Every structure is written in structure tokens, then in C-alpha cells.
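Appendix C: a fully annotated inverse folding record. The material below is reproduced so that readers can follow the format used throughout the book. The structure is listed first as C-alpha cells, followed by the designed sequence.
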């Protein structure tokens, strides 16, 4: 138990493998340098006093029976409730929350917030911090049950398992993680903001998950990990399209790992383009603003570009070859370390 703690959790870029996590599929994310910092001080008040410095807003609630809330407060209250459910004895605390990941950008500010909050709260309690996989599952419950977004584990695992110069290939069926060197040489990955914000809980994200579950029921499968493209003809639209995306996206993750091992960056660019086309045409999560941003990156010379994150706005990821200047507003992204207590 500490009297004070500082926790940092990074956001993430998902190189490829979108909407596959809740379908027991594959993904290839990496942690980035931007993230969320929580500065926590233990009190004996029996209350949590939280301030979101970026928003200039505050929240205060009693521990024990925690009432639900919306917005950023749902994350704080969910984190306190889930840490308490885990057996930690919180006596109270003051939390100062700040971040550098834009909200609704597709770079997983939500998971960064959940992870940083839970790390800080565990530090103030008498319970040990759970292992990274268990902590990711705890954070996922915050998002699912307190925020109302039925996300999988991709974002939390990427935030917790990040390493420099490394992406993480995640198998969401076995929950095994393999390190994949992300050595791009003179090539670079950039994100470009479409200018359109999304909120996962309020977008079509939950509907997409429900459609995947409906396809499983129609096909008699436990998850779409077992689906094949031959099965698609047995389904009505839009379920058939959703399955086409998931099956082909898993194949693209495997191909991307191979392309990185072979340093075949043109092939990687083509995979990014194919992923975006599938997300747009089969999963229907793109928007006109996103399409315009993809086009900007292509006009600048990107080898490939795709929407990143759950969709319905946010950032677009582009792979730029040597000598190509990023379009105005683009930000270079590189793999960074995972979440940790830094004080």
C-alpha cells in the first residue's frame, strides 16, 4: 500500500486486425508514446475525488455502493468498483487524470484511461496488482459493464504488453501473445486525424458485435474464428459481409507478420489497403471524412492506409516509404513501452 502513486498507460495503434478480438481472431497492435497519466493520493475519507484536468471537470463518490455515471466518470467509477470487487481495500483517494491521446481518435484513449486508473488504485490498496492478462480482463469489464461498449481485449492487452520497437501478435482464442519486431528502417508509420470523433458506446460498434453473434448462431459456431469464406453463402446480408471481413482480416494479420519478417513493405502497404477496403465495404465502419483522409495519405505517397480503431471516425494509419513527406497534420507513430507505475 502506498500513500501516493503515479501510473501511466499508453494508447495504441493497431497495425492490422480490426474487429477480430471479440471474434476470437488475430490482431497486431503496438503501444505508442501518447497515453494517460493518473496521479493518485491515498486518503481515509471513504470517497474517491477525481479531477480530469484536460476537461476541467470533477467527480466525487463514496466507496461501497458506487452509483453509475456517464462520460469519463463512468471509467473512474467502474475502475474503483472493479478494483474493490477484486478484493482490494480502498480507504479513499484523490485522482488527477491527464492525457495526451485525443478522445475518440481510434488510438484507444479509453483503454489507456482504464489501465492507468486501475494501476493507480491498486497501488493505493492493500492488494497486489494482478498479472497483465488478468488486469486486461478487469479493465475490459469496466468498458463492457460500466461504460456500455462491448469491446474485446485488444486495446487493454496492447497497452499492458507494449515494448519498444515491437508489435504484439495476439491470438484472442488462446490469449497467447507473440512479439513481432517492427523494424521499418527508413519507412515510417503515421496517423492522420480525420477530424471526426467517435464514441464506441454510442456508435454502431455494439451492433457489429451483435451481428457477428447472429452469424455464429446461423452457422452453429462458437465464434467466427471457426468460420470460412465458403460458409458466407449460407448467410443473409449484412451478416455475410461481416463474416467476410473477419475471416479475411485474420488472414491479413498472418500475412502482415510474414511481410514484416521478410521486410516486404510494399506487401504490408497492400495489406493495409485491403484491410481498409474490407472495413469500408464489408464492415461498414468508414465515413466520408475517413475516406477523404485515406485519399490524402495516398496522394502524399503512402504505400497503404486504413482506418484504425473501431471506426466511425478517428485516425487513419498510413505507411510511408523513404523520401515521402507526411501530409500536414500527420504524426509519426513508433512502438513504445507498456503501462507501468512510474512513481
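Designed amino acids, in order:
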Amino acid at each position: 500500500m502506498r500513500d501516493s502513486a503515479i501510473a501511466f498507460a499508453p494508447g495504441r495503434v493497431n497495425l492490422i486486425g480490426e474487429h477480430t478480438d471479440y471474434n476470437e481472431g488475430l490482431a497486431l497492435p503496438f503501444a505508442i508514446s501518447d497515453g494517460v497519466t493518473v496521479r493518485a493520493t491515498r486518503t481515509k475519507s471513504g470517497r474517491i475525488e477525481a479531477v480530469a484536468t484536460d476537461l476541467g471537470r470533477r467527480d466525487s463518490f463514496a466507496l461501497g455502493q458506487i452509483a453509475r455515471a456517464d462520460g469519463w466518470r463512468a471509467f473512474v467509477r467502474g475502475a474503483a468498483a472493479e478494483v474493490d470487487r477484486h478484493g482490494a481495500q480502498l480507504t479513499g483517494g484523490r485522482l488527477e487524470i491527464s492525457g495526451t491521446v485525443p478522445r475518440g481518435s481510434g488510438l484507444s484513449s479509453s483503454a489507456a484511461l482504464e489501465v492507468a486508473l486501475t494501476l493507480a488504485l491498486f497501488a493505493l490498496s492493500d492488494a497486489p496488482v494482478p498479472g497483465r492478462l488478468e488486469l486486461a480482463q478487469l479493465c475490459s469489464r469496466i468498458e463492457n459493464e460500466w461504460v456500455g461498449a462491448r469491446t474485446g481485449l485488444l486495446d487493454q492487452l496492447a497497452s499492458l504488453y507494449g515494448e519498444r520497437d515491437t508489435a504484439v501478435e495476439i491470438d484472442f482464442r488462446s490469449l497467447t501473445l507473440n512479439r513481432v519486431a517492427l523494424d521499418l528502417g527508413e519507412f515510417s508509420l503515421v496517423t492522420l486525424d480525420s477530424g471526426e470523433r467517435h464514441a464506441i458506446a454510442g456508435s454502431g460498434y455494439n451492433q457489429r458485435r451483435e451481428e457477428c453473434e447472429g452469424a455464429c448462431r446461423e452457422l452453429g459456431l462458437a465464434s467466427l474464428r471457426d468460420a470460412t469464406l465458403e460458409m458466407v453463402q449460407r448467410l443473409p446480408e449484412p451478416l455475410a459481409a461481416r463474416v467476410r471481413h473477419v475471416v479475411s482480416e485474420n488472414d491479413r494479420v498472418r500475412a502482415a507478420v510474414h511481410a514484416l519478417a521478410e521486410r516486404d513493405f510494399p506487401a504490408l502497404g497492400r495489406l493495409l489497403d485491403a484491410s481498409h477496403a474490407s472495413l469500408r465495404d464489408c464492415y461498414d465502419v468508414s465515413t466520408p471524412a475517413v475516406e477523404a483522409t485515406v485519399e490524402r495519405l495516398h496522394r502524399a505517397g503512402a504505400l497503404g492506409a486504413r482506418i484504425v480503431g473501431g471506426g466511425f471516425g478517428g485516425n487513419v494509419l498510413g505507411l510511408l516509404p523513404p523520401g515521402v513527406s507526411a501530409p500536414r497534420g500527420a504524426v509519426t507513430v513508433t512502438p513504445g513501452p507498456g503501462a507501468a507505475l512510474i512513481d
